Amino acid sequence: MALDIPTDPTLPPFVDQARRLMFGDTELLRHLADAAGGLAVNLAVAALIFAGTLWAANWASRLAAQAIQRAHRRNPPDATLQSFVSSLVRYTVVIVGLVAVLSQLGVKTTSVIAVLGAASLAIGLALQGALANVAAGVMLLVLRPYRVGDVVEIDGKTGTVRGLDLFATRLSDGDNLMIFTPNAKAFGATIVNLSAPVARRAQLDFVIDYGDDVDRALALLLACAAAEPRVARTPAPWAKLTALGDKGLTVSLRAWIPPKDFEDARFDLMKAAKDRLEAAGYSFPYPHQVAVAQRGFQPPHSKANGATAGDGAAPSPRSFSPPPTTAGSSPDR
Fold it and tell me: Would you list the domain boundaries of the chain?
């Protein structure tokens, strides 16, 4: 049977409570039982809150992904944007749930939030460059100037977008080289999306002689564009005389080509137009170089060479050439 053991003021509190517990103090055992029951209840409630938090995080994540998918009904949903938004929602719900769990266990969440805020400020100051990339990555994911698979030009580099995360954008150029561009630099530079338009305009310029038939040349260019199946019919191909140069007349052909076939179709159309113009008798002026022969340089005679004999200088043969004489006269005259 438990007994009420008096407190011994000469002992430390911890030792005194241990002595009373060992000898079976009724009051102390009752307090311990109450504390254990309250702790068990708090742990059970905290476990329920944590389980509910995980379920709510997964549910909110799926809901955010479905919302992104519904927002892109006309176009296929962006997997990168869906992953980013769903992860952001999931982690937000988990953090809120953890704060609620700590509060249920008796932890002062105000102090925890203050410590986390100070730590976040210190980390933000130390990693401000990386955080700038993260902020730019968020803006790129929200504004969507390009998607994975698009051909873009970023900061003078052209390539296909292979990946986009919170820190960098990965491009693969024509040489199959992987280019990593920080999001902060990509977001602050000029972005040209070459895959966004339905068709791109290709312009081909040819220089012909002034004596050639311009109307016939334009008709040949339009015929070449009509024979190319990859050229769009709307807008229709366009051919005009565009310049009067010092070498000849410039005739231009403009045709609209889908982005995926742009380079191959443009080069094939250029070759076909050149072959057809040459077959029709047109010639293309090209720069000429004229070689000019230069005579050897002879310095002019100085005044010293032209001095008279009385000055002690040798007479110049050119200065003392005899004057011409008439017929029948003698040199002595």
Answer: 13-126, 143-193, 200-279
Quick one: fold of 200-279? Alpha-Beta Plaits (3.30.70)
Q: 274-277: which pairs have CB atoms within 8 A and are 24 or more residues apart?
A: 274/206, 276/220, 276/223, 276/224, 277/206, 277/208, 277/217, 277/220, 277/221
For the chain, give the number of residues: 333
Q: Is 158 left (phi over 0), alpha (psi -120 to 50) or beta?
A: beta
User: What type of residue sits at position 321?
Assistant: S
The SS3 assignment for 122 reads helix
For residue range 171-222, list pLDDT tens digits in order: 998 888 999 999 888 888 889 999 888 899 999 999 999 889 999 999 999 9
User: DSSP states of 136-167 as a string?
Assistant: HHHHHHHH-S--TT-EEEETTEEEEEEEE-SS
CATH domain 143-193 topology: SH3 type barrels. (2.30.30)
> Could you give the CA distance from residue 148 to residue 168 in angstroms, rounded to a whole number?
13
pTM here is 0.56
What is the band of 329 on the pLDDT scale with cuts at 50, 70, 90? very low
Q: Do domains 13-126 and 143-193 have the same CATH topology?
A: no
CATH number of 13-126: 1.10.287.1260
